[in-house]
Design goal:
heterodimer, A: alpha/beta, Protocatechuate 4,5-dioxygenase, Chain B, six-stranded mixed beta sheet, two-stranded parallel ribbon, 10 helices, 38% helix, B: alpha/beta, 60s Ribosomal Protein L30, Chain: A, 2 domains, binds fe (ii) ion
Chain lengths: 300, 472
């Protein structure tokens, strides 16, 4: 086969607060809104991609944490209740999602051929992590596209950001090769926040926006620096500064999602579109799209 | 009803192998046999409550307590999903959980109960309860491990738990679900090839187990930070379970310990250890950290590796430095006595002044020199919100500061002849202050006057004005 391609790559964070605030029928708790800036950002992202045809969403969530290799959801369907163990008051979501097992297996095989430890997850009782569900819902509330879900290997904790990044760059390249060989059109999502220092208390009403702000000025500066690189088409600088960023901003990029995403996009040198930025319980979150399809059209 | 107590403590491993695949590896089956033995011991002790501190249940907003009376679901491990699923249906003491939550709040902690159908109980708790409580007869309670918590927060949380154990007359078993070294192989291995990841990890594990087998739990608690640096992958910011377990046992070093098994689980150190509260006669108590009763303030997550020479969190020390009125260098005049080892004045005056054979001290409070921290805690926060504090700890600190100034002057405590004490809350604090007085200055015998006043310039509850007659 061949002719497959990545039509867009996005940074698509997953704080469960965003799903909570929206009150979809799948989620049990009820909110009075909140975090609109970010939810409007997701709306703009969806609109931006509304006319783009694609077959599958490939997603890496830092809340499926594996210490032994990278794992892939490997059954056609997962249906259950996802309760966030940290914010169970906000997120109890009844999910029913389908997996593009062929594409998952193709990426798995490609990564394996490159020497990476990988495994298909084929236990039907497995509960899909809340990061995957949240990003999946916010990106595509209709759930009408199959997903490929990769676990987050905790190599940052084991070794260092540098080693994590080397592994994620390899995994990103394998992902890209497998997608191209599949003949499918794919959107790639990294599901993570930027700076990731939480408040250690929660307000009486979690959606009380008068309490929401970044935890510190330093976190804000780091977030803005990363966003500037994204908007300026300087993805390489993000990779270069990833160790400092991840450590100093306690960034959720420690899970490897952002490095992997930039690698699947071949480290883009064209500007990304910032659809929104906001804080959630003090953490910094950006919704960002690299419009590969447009970039290709302009260059063909 | 007699007072409740901890009748036993256990350290147990977290990974699902002992439940799902003990037959695949002789080490795993030995761990399993040890878990079964522990279950028997618990039954024989007629324990009526299992308290689990699980390192595989992280939380962010304080600590979480499981309060669903009957949580039921199917647990599949994120890594070892191919070993199978564990169906669970547990017997949780929701009433105890709520009482513990209340006790946490009374001690200044963030804490909440969770009671949601489908809540994903973590692998460590599932393994522990499945094997230690096989017929589900003994009610249990599970607490999370807060990712930002430091030692004082973890200790206070244990003390809150003990408050409830004691007041409800329970015979409780304290359990930590944890690995020793937690470094796993990062590749897939055959079950038969399992071993501890590295020699260094193995050596540290054996040292920890040597301490535990001698009942030296508090020593392991104090080594926690070193252990975290040496053999722990930084999944979390500190190696906390030993802090909790030590506090649950009164920070003792003379328990009776027994290692029931020690084996590798995919490279990590898995052990089953029984700690019996019966004094073993060995192991001095060497508790050298602040014995905190009440939790104050922000967690120092950003400074996990950074402590100053005194072992204090730098951030905490800086924070307390920056609160309260401006500090002054002590002034100099004829006969003045000033010392670096006493807290800086809050105005232009010396620590003490000598006139003839008399020595007059300026009012002395409990603030610590250097850090400006207040032992026993400040009486209100930066916004002026009242906080709980320990008057006895404050009074002790005042006496200690008095001693430092007196010694700087070349005098001795026995020469103190008159003391005026100022309390901001006579009703609340007189008894505690009086107790400490009796043990300290009361033994010296100065005259004393105690006054209630409206406020002191820093958030402290007690200050003393001291006069000495130096004589010959
Ligand atoms: Fe997250």
């Amino acid at each position: 086969m061949g002719g497959g391609k990545i039509v867009a790559g996005c940074l698509a964070p997953h704080p469960p607060h965003l799903v909570y605030a929206e009150n979809p029928p799948q989620n049990e708790p009820v909110a009075e809104g909140g975090w609109e800036q970010l939810r409007w950002g997701y709306e703009r992202l969806r609109e931006s991609l509304a006319d783009i045809e694609y077959d599958a969403i490939v997603l890496l969530s830092p809340h499926w944490q594996t210490y032994v290799g990278t794992h892939f959801l490997g059954l056609p369907n997962f249906k259950s209740l996802s309760v966030d163990p940290v914010f169970p008051n906000l997120f109890r979501y009844h999910y029913d999602l389908s997996i593009d097992v062929d594409l998952a297996k193709a990426i798995h095989d490609e990564a394996q051929a490159s020497g990476m430890p990988v495994k298909m997850m084929e236990n039907p009782d497995f509960r899909v992590d809340y990061g995957t569900i949240t990003t999946g819902h916010l990106f595509n509330p209709e759930w009408d596209k199959p997903l490929v879900v990769l676990s987050s290997n905790r190599s940052t904790a084991y070794y260092s950001v540098e080693v994590m990044q080397e592994m994620m760059i390899e995994l990103g390249k394998a992902t890209r090769r497998a997608i191209e060989a599949s003949g499918k059109r794919v959107v790639v999502l990294a599901s993570n926040s930027l700076s990731h220092r939480h408040f250690t208390t929660e307000s009486e009403l979690p959606e009380d926006m008068s309490k929401e702000h970044i935890t510190s000025h330093a976190m804000h500066l780091w977030d803005m620096r990363m966003i500037k690189y994204m908007r300026d088409g300087e993805a390489q600088r993000i990779l270069d500064e990833m160790p400092e960023f991840t450590e100093q901003a306690i960034a959720e990029s420690d899970g490897g999602g952002l490095s992997w995403l930039l690698s699947t996009l071949d480290v883009p040198d064209y500007p990304a579109i910032l659809h929104g930025y906001g804080t959630i319980i003090g953490t910094g979150n950006a919704i960002v799209e690299w419009p590969c399809h447009k970039h290709e059209e302009e260059n063909s | 009803m007699s007072e409740g107590e901890i009748v036993a403590s256990f350290v147990v491993p977290v990974h699902p192998h002992t439940v799902l695949a003990p037959e695949q590896n002789p080490g795993w089956s030995r761990l399993r046999a040890a878990m079964d033995e522990a279950a028997n011991t618990i039954k024989e002790l007629e324990a009526d409550l299992l308290i689990i501190y699980s390192t595989t249940w992280p939380s962010i907003i304080g600590h979480q307590l499981q309060a669903d009376p009957n949580p039921e679901w199917v647990m599949v491990d994120h890594d070892f999903h191919d070993l199978g699923s564990i169906h669970y249906s547990f017997n949780i003491d929701a009433q105890f959980a709520h009482a513990w939550n209340q006790a946490n709040h009374e001690r200044g902690l963030q804490s909440r109960c969770v009671n949601y159908k489908g809540f994903p109980i973590d692998v460590g708790s599932v393994v522990a309860l499945t094997l230690l409580n096989p017929d589900n007869i003994i009610p249990a309670v599970i607490v999370s491990s807060n990712v930002y918590a430091n030692r004082s927060e973890t200790t206070v949380m244990a003390k809150a738990c003990l408050d409830v154990v004691k007041s409800t007359g329970r015979k409780a078993v304290a359990i930590t679900a944890m690995s020793l070294s937690n470094r796993m192989f990062t590749e897939f291995i055959e079950a038969g090839d399992d071993r501890i990841h590295s020699l260094k990890d193995d050596e540290w594990n054996r040292k920890i187990l040597e301490f535990l087998s001698e009942g030296r739990l508090e020593d392991v608690g104090q080594l926690s930070r070193t252990i975290q640096q040496q053999i722990r992958v930084r999944k979390v910011v500190a190696f906390k379970p030993m802090w909790w377990l030590s506090a649950m046992n009164g920070n003792r070093n003379d328990l009776t310990g027994q290692v029931l098994a020690y084996e590798a689980i995919h490279g990590a150190g898995g052990a089953v250890v029984h700690l019996d509260p019966t004094p073993s006669g060995q192991g001095d108590k060497e508790y050298d950290e602040d014995d905190v009763e009440y939790f104050h303030g922000e967690r120092g997550v950003l400074d996990t590796a950074e402590t100053n020479e005194n072992g204090e969190d730098i951030v905490e020390a800086m924070e307390s430095k920056s609160s309260g009125p401006e500090l002054w260098e002590p002034t100099k005049a004829e006969g003045s006595v000033n010392t670096e080892s006493a807290p800086k004045p809050v105005g232009a005056y010396p620590h003490a002044r000598r006139v003839g054979d008399m020595l007059f001290l300026s009012g002395v409070g409990p603030r610590q020199p250097g850090t400006n921290a207040i032992p026993g805690g400040p009486i209100h926060d930066k916004e002026g919100e009242p906080m709980d504090y320990d008057i006895k700890a404050q009074t002790h600190a005042v006496v200690e500061n008095v001693r430092r100034i007196v010694e700087e002057a070349g005098a001795s405590m026995e020469q103190i002849v008159d003391v005026t004490t100022f309390l901001v809350d006579m009703k609340r604090d007189f008894a505690g202050y009086n107790e400490v007085w009796a043990e300290t200055l009361g033994l010296v015998g100065p005259t004393r006057t105690t006054l209630a006043i409206d406020a002191l310039p820093t958030p402290i509850a007690v200050e003393m004005k001291v006069i000495l007659h130096l004589g010959q």
